[in-house]
Amino acid sequence: MQENDKAVLVYSTFPSLETAEECGGALVDAGLAACVNILPGMVSLYTWKGARHRDAEVVMIIKTRRSLSARVIEEARRRHPYENPALMVLPVEDGSPDFLAWILSQTQTQSPGNPGD
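Above: the chain's sequence. Below: its structure in token form.
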């Protein structure tokens, strides 16, 4: 398997379940993600523009392939309400071969606009 065909996870946070579902659904529908997991009920503590914040957020974990990670980040950022959203690609070292194959089978392998997307 080529390095770009390996599964990766893209981690992000959203201000609400609704915004995460909208973005995640679009990623799945476009073939950029095999699946997204949305976990509500998270509390984030951080400093932004000199002020300390405590916000309720939801986590979204996007299952995709490395070759699509830049497009996933671009699309998620375009749909994201935050000025500087958390979007990080996390490598998958190993896993169930059947599940990893499923991720690859559910995601695009061709560039946008080509038949078969």
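The two ends are 20 Å apart (CA to CA).
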